[in-house]
Amino acid sequence: MKISKYVVFLTFFSVIFSCSDNEEEHYVKHFDYSTLEDSIPDSVRYHVNPSYPVRLDSLRILAIGNSFTDDAMQYMNRMVNDAGIDNDLLAICSLTEGSSTFKTWLSKDFESTVVQLRTDAGNAVMKTKGTIHEILNQNWDLIIIQQSSDQSYKWESFSYLKNLEDKLLACCPNKSVCLGFQLVWSHSKEEMPHVLEGNIACCEKMIQRYGADVVIPTGVAIQNARNTSLNDSKYLTRDHWHLNKGIARYIATATWFERLIRPVFDVSVIDNACMPEGDYS
């Protein structure tokens, strides 16, 4: 079986997942939150997220995060090119700072802090250097955020999210811009079960209260892979924190691709010629 088909099997999802009760294996199963979401009146939610764009003529994504965002981008350019997507119709850019949290980005002066974006895929013309306000003041379709991995399972750390959403959205000219969230992975074997469960629980609360309901379940895909022959002595990391540069980063990129790019361009990572570093034959 081609590695891409295997990875799609690992990363197949609804949008949100929950952990298995099996204490030995800690596999992950789907959680259908659609009925939960429908039961929450718009008046109760802080932010009602516009629907994720489907079948657009083009797609512009800005990812704001840290090194865990970087991990997911290693294979993006190759995967996009091998999928045959017109690069002029796509822009995937990242604004990252090591160990940054919601609080980190909220505390920055958007009007004076000059940043440099990294273009991870696509050729659609976007301003890549300027103040944070200038970067945000472009026609983005989707802005992806994430919490630092050492806080992502602590609900109290999400208290900064409302004000951060306000700050981000106030800069965006596209009033239909959609907010997304990367659900990150746990670090070590000892913390895998409770941290991933905590990540998912915080994510469910975030959807209910703050509306960022476009979720990239990278952490779930990595945990699924850890329960297969793809796992290694460092649990698919290179330092017990960040993903290894082979199959783990490939899985992360594939998860982003399937969640964000497939709905717009109607192309899957299945049979994509892009392969991870290493021997997975």
> What's the helix-strand series?
HEEHEHHEHEEEHEHEHEHH
Strands ordered across the widest β-sheet: 6-4-3-8-9-10
| Oligomer class | single chain
**Share in helix:** 25-40%
The low-confidence parts are 12-39
Using the alpha-carbon principal axes, give the shape.
globular
Indicate the structural class.
Answer: alpha/beta
What separation lies between the terminal Cα atoms? Answer: 9 Å
SS summary, helix count: 10
Taken as a percent bin, the fraction of beta residues is: 15-25%
Q: Mean of residue pLDDT?
A: 86
Largest sheet: 6 strands, mixed
* DSSP, total strands: 10
Radius of gyration: 18 Å
Layout of secondary structure:
Layout: H1 3-11, E1 16-19, E2 28-31, H2 34-38, E3 59-65, H3 67-71, H4 76-82, E4 90-96, H5 102-106, E5 114-116, E6 118-121, E7 129-131, H6 132-136, E8 142-145, H7 161-171, E9 178-182, H8 192-210, E10 214-216, H9 218-226, H10 247-265
Parallel strand pairs: 3-4, 3-8, 8-9, 9-10
Antiparallel strand pairs: 1-2, 4-6, 5-7
Descriptive account of the structure:
The protein has ten helices and ten strands. The protein has 281 residues and is α/β, with parallel strands linked by helices. The strands form three sheets. A six-stranded mixed β-sheet has the order 6-4-3-8-9-10. A two-stranded antiparallel ribbon has the order 1-2. The radius of gyration is 18 Å and the shape is globular. The N and C termini lie close together (9 Å).
